[in-house]
Amino acid sequence: MEATFDFGMIGIGVMGSNLLLNIADNGFAVIGFDLKQERADKLEAAAPSGTVVKGTINIEEMVRSLKKPRKIMMLVPAGKPVDDVINNLLPYLEEDDILIDGGNSFYKDTQKRIEYLQPKGIHFFGMGVSGGEAGARFGPSMMPGGDKEAYRYLQPILEAIAAKVDGKPCVAYMGNGPAGHYVKMVHNGIEYAMMQLISEAYDIMKRGAGYTNEELHAVFLKWNAGSLQSFLIEITAEVFRTLDTETADDKDYLVDHILDKAGSKGTGKWTSQDAMNLPVSIPTIDMAVAMRDLSVYKNERVEASKLYGTEITKLTLPSTEFIQDLEDALYFSFLIAYAQGLSLLAKVSVDYKMEIPMPDVVSIWKGGCIIRSSLLYQFDKAYAENSTLSNVLLHQSIADVLKQKEAGIRKIVSLAVNSKIPVAAMSSALAYFDAYCSERLPVNLIQAQRDFFGAHTYQRIDKEGVFHTEWNVNGS
Ligand code: 6PG
User: Fold this and answer.
1) Probe ligand 1: pick from 15, 198, 265, max atoms within 8 Å of CB?
2) Under 8 Å between Cβ of 235 and 155
């Protein structure tokens, strides 16, 4: 069999097909494998004229028709399906072949797969792919990590298909081992935080200030044209003008018919869990996960709202000032959410020896992905001066921006608290900021208590050493 294809894909559902067609558009000959013949046929039928696209249900045919070193990507559900595909492929793979997992796999699974395939001479890449179906077809953001030597074979293809911002492709080598999947996991943690923050702003405007969907659409549209310009703000504006097709009333908006229980596939939770293991403090991401979890307990919430008679106090503020404060509050808390995620990456870059290039992370998140936003430009200066900065909050340029927005978030959080509108993520962003910027925290008392009941010892501010006190000598 002649080896004529440049790139192979296992799993040609919508994401896999779209990515493959994107690669084909850029002049590469591609072949996709799926267990279902109709998917193979559909892929070929979707190929634009002038491109070389083949679908097959024969995995051996796919592998043998690829040029060496073979470049094969899997886009299958995370977990066991990835291991099944690897084991089905193995009999046909040869030394130096490159296998990419483009799904949202847990980074520890990726590490195990790297270790399993390394002795066989196969280069395994964990690659985060963000941007959904449209991104896959017309330009995603991609976060590949793994064997740096082998990356040069992937680089031309990935750079060709990635979204471009300021002429730069939104793809770069993200570091050693499972770094690619780690960076994508943190991307998703930030995604959870930004979505939660937007939903809190929505709650304040809707339940608090009584904004209609038309007004909400206008506010988000305005924000997207200003400093909050981002994919998530942009789609939110669209949501508020989408009418429901199930109901007779032609002025009924779909968003009002959607049940308030949020789903999740686990990447946000993994981010929080791993951050706690290290430990790194990322409370705004933690809160976003916790609020999705709480939302699921709908019946209990209904019962509790009756028991406590929860009633929102209506907000009556001059609307331009209120909307400006809210915009500042969102800006402030978005920046904090990014800062928390980036501080986690800076830590694992060292602790897990991933050597993550922080300036590149910020650069490839500027386009193609779900968390793309103009706010990311704020971090350029900080990383240009110090690419291993442990926390971007320590840079003067970030301090200057946050100080401008600080008054807005303080007003909004206190308004919300007094009106009984839950702003868990927004208030956590502010509390994180206040704690991070506190020279002294009250945890001296926690240390005293720990030593009191458990002889856990403490350190002193005035001399070196580890101390223990018999606290209750004068007690009862
Ligand atoms: C992306 C997204 C995507 C993720 C969804 C679902 O970058 O394109 O992060 O990879 O799977 O957002 O996540 P949840 O179901 O956990 O919300």
Assistant:
1) 265
2) no
Cβ atoms 226, 328 nearer than 8 A: no
Catalytic status, residue 191: yes
How many domains in the chain?
3
3-state secondary structure of 244: coil
pLDDT tens digit at each of 476 positions of the chain: 788 999 999 999 999 999 999 999 999 999 999 999 999 999 999 999 999 999 999 999 999 999 999 999 999 999 999 999 999 999 999 999 999 999 999 999 999 999 999 999 999 999 999 999 999 999 999 999 999 999 999 999 999 999 999 999 999 999 999 999 999 999 999 999 999 999 999 999 999 999 999 999 999 999 999 999 999 999 999 999 999 998 877 789 999 999 999 999 999 999 999 999 999 999 999 999 999 999 999 999 999 999 999 788 888 777 789 999 999 999 999 999 999 999 999 999 999 999 999 999 999 999 999 999 999 999 999 999 999 999 999 999 999 999 999 999 999 999 999 999 999 999 999 999 999 999 999 999 999 999 999 999 999 999 999 999 999 866 54
Give helix 37-46 / helix 14-25 axis angle, nearest 10°.
Answer: 40
End residue of a domain, out of 156, 177, 198: 177
Q: Is the CB of 265 under 6 A from ligand 1?
A: yes
CA of 188 to the centre of ligand 1 (A): 6
264 lines ligand 1 (CB under 6 A): yes
pTM over 0.85: yes
Give the number of other CB atoms < 10 A from CB of residue 3.
Answer: 12
Asked whether residue 380 is domain-assigned, the answer is yes
Q: Judge if 276 and 386 occupy the same domain.
A: yes
Which of 75, 186, 188 for a ligand 1 pocket mutation test, highest count of atoms within 8 Å of Cβ?
A: 188
Q: Are strands 164-165 and 53-56 parallel, antiparallel or unpaired?
A: unpaired
CATH number of the domain within which 321 lies: 1.10.1040.10
Within this chain, do residues 257 and 162 fall inside the same structural domain, yes or no? no
Q: 468 C-alpha vs ligand 1 centroid, how far in Å?
A: 48
Q: What's 43's domain CATH number? A: 3.40.50.720
Cβ–Cβ under 8 Å, residues 459 and 466: yes
Q: Which domain holds residue 143?
A: 7-177
